């Protein structure tokens, strides 16, 4: 998408826009860049609460302050370390040239920070504010109502949409620099050390209350943004790129914590005998919180998040939601086939072929849950389905097979 929020500014206009950013948030950023590691989680929470990142929802706290169950803010930051490492030195300027590994890292960060509220999920506002912080301003701006109004981008409901907006921001920055030289040389000296995502955020972000609307009246940027309370950012069908960031499970209950939230109610599938598998999976999430890193059988891992209607996973870019019925039907099949069944090969076979029979886990799910017929091509889901069942202690595995545990 084309964004013309700053490309038509002169250096003097850009400098004035950055200088006009609300000074209350300038001091927050200075504190963040200087914070010691042991105090980082506490400051992370303090800043995001001041920025109203999860309004109107209550944000999670550090472990010593919490009146809710896991995960705590320390847990979210700890989980963020690995995708941040994969993100490397990616910035908003280079986002269009990201690798698949970096795309997945962006999606994983979004998935983690959608869990910022202690009950429910964060909107694109909270997610992008958290990402702006943990990348030290390299990936920005934050999509609050001020910024969205200036760039005219609307509400990103998918990770693909979020990244598309970031690519538009990168073009806007590049257009400014092609006319005026480096952005960091156009801003006032106190801000020349800041990353471009942060500088762009400051140029379009909140003004002091007495100056609200001044940037709008100046005619800079494109207008017409939505209200501040948005649906979460979700990654959908970006081939080979990003995982879903969508509504996921609530905070885990914890004994002795009166305000702890509960996990979503069990939604039953077609088999009553298999229904307890959902409770087993939910108990697994109760011990770690709404987002878990699930081991892959051949090494590595993916991120899974509990939602009201199932599990969302980071390794199925096109269709990341696995409804509860998927797990119930997998266990129902295993119960009817003596406790073991072929995984099924959707990569090389069509439904009903020897390698993807209706008695394979993949084939059974395709027919019973997704209504597919013999001869159809099947979207491959077996890897996250099997790994989640193994992680939850419901199943084991042998070569080519899924095995129901007693």
Overall description:
- This protein is α+β, with helices and mostly antiparallel strands and 406 residues long.
- The chain has two domains: 11-217, no CATH class; 276-404, no CATH class.
- 38% of the residues lie in helices and 7% in strands.
- The chain contains 14 helices and seven strands.
- The longest helix has 22 residues, at 159-180.
- The protein starts with 10 loop residues before the first helix and ends with a strand.
The mean pLDDT is 82
Helix percent reads 25-40%
Which shape, going by the Cα principal axes?
elongated
Number of strands: 7
Radius of gyration: 23 Å
| Low-pLDDT regions | 212-274
Q: How do the strands line up in the largest sheet? A: 1-2-3-4
The share of residues in extended strands comes to: 5-15%
- Count of individual helical segments: 14
Question: Tags for this entry?
Answer:
2 domains; alpha+beta; four-stranded antiparallel beta sheet; 406 residues; 7 strands
Set down the secondary structure blueprint.
Elements: H1 11-19, H2 23-34, H3 40-50, H4 73-87, H5 100-113, H6 124-134, H7 145-151, H8 159-180, H9 196-204, H10 214-217, H11 276-286, E1 291-295, E2 301-307, E3 310-313, E4 321-323, H12 324-336, E5 340-342, H13 361-368, H14 382-391, E6 395-398, E7 401-404
Helix pairs in contact: 1-9, 4-5, 5-6, 12-13
In short:
The protein is 38% helix and 7% strand. With 406 residues, it is an alpha+beta fold.
């Amino acid at each position: 998408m084309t964004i013309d929020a700053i490309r038509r500014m002169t250096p003097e206009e850009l400098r004035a826009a950055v200088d006009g950013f609300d000074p209350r948030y300038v001091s927050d950023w200075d504190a963040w860049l200087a914070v010691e590691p042991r105090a980082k989680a506490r400051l992370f929470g303090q800043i995001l609460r001041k920025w109203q990142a999860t309004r109107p929802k209550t944000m999670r706290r550090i472990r010593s302050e919490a009146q809710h169950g896991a995960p705590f803010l320390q847990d979210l930051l700890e989980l963020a370390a690995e995708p941040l490492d994969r993100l490397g030195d990616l910035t908003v300027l280079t986002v269009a040239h990201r690798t698949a590994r970096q795309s997945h890292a962006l999606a994983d960060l979004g998935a983690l920070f959608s869990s910022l509220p202690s009950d429910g999920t964060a909107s694109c506002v909270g997610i992008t504010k958290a990402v702006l912080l943990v990348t030290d301003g390299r990936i920005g701006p934050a999509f609050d109502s001020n910024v969205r109004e200036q760039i005219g981008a609307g509400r990103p409901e998918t990770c693909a949409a979020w990244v598309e907006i970031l690519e538009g921001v990168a073009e806007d920055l590049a257009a400014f620099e092609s006319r005026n030289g480096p952005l960091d040389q156009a801003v006032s000296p106190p801000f020349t050390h800041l990353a471009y995502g942060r500088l762009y955020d400051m140029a379009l972000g909140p003004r002091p209350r007495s100056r609200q609307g001044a940037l709008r009246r100046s005619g800079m940027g494109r207008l017409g943004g939505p209200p501040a309370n948005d649906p979460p950012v979700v990654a959908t069908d970006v081939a080979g790129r990003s995982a879903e960031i969508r509504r996921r499970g609530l905070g885990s209950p914890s004994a002795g914590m009166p305000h702890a939230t509960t996990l979503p109610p069990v939604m039953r599938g077609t088999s009553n005998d298999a229904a307890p598998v959902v409770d087993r999976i939910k108990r697994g999430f109760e011990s770690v919180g709404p987002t878990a890193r699930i081991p892959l059988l051949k090494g590595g891992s993916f991120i899974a998040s509990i939602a009201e209607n199932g599990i969302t996973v980071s390794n199925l870019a096109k269709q990341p939601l696995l409804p509860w019925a998927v797990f119930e039907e997998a266990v129902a099949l295993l119960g009817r086939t003596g406790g073991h069944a072929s995984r099924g090969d959707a990569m090389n076979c069509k439904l009903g072929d020897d390698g993807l029979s209706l008695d394979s886990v993949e084939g059974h799910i395709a027919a019973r849950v997704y209504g597919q017929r013999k001869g159809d091509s099947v979207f491959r889901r077996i890897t996250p389905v099997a790994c989640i069942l193994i992680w939850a202690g419901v199943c084991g595995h042998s070569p080519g097979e899924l095995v129901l545990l007693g």
